[in-house]
Amino acid sequence: MRSTSLRLLGLQLLFDCIFVLLLFQPSESCAAEPPEEGTSTDTLILCRACGHEVAFGTDIHFVPSRMALSSRNDTSVGGRRIHVQLFENPHGHQFNVITFRRADVIKHWPADRHFSWYPGFSWTVATCPRCQTHLGWAFQPSSWPDTIPNNKFEESENTFLALITDRILREDFASSLLMTPKSFTS
Ligand SMILES: [Zn+2]
């Protein structure tokens, strides 16, 4: 008797869940978390050279610098517009970069506080962990030691990365280039 009513309760909950899904989110599972406002949580940013998954679209985090030669707001990732800043290094080479809160890259300590595009922050070169392509730079407060454990960088709110737009790629854009059927990408 008790197990029957429990089973009925379970069925009722299941039907309720299906009903709610049909009403609001036909393609999502019961356990799916709502995406962050205005962003697509599953937009992946890849290394353009090898396809390594470097970051999520939600890791993009604008860190403005007065050292930027220009700052524009014109590339859409996951339905929102993001900031691209143009910087020049002491050798006269210019780089368009997007800033990220975190990214799966190798950081090459010790950090250098000279010629920083972000006054008050030291930088290291950041490379792809799979193919070693130079993807950009990681920034940490200049008051920190020049060499720190990777987890200290990862866990801090005061660190960020600037990745070169030409060397990264959006996963959905890469998929469209490859003409991969939707059923293989999900
Ligand atoms: Zn790579």
TrEMBL record:
It comes from the Eukaryota. Residues 42-172 form the CULT domain. It comes from Crenichthys baileyi (White River springfish). Keywords: Signal. InterPro entries: CULT. Residues 1-32 form the signal peptide. This is CULT domain-containing protein. The keyword Magnesium does not apply. Gene3D superfamilies: Peptide methionine sulfoxide reductase.
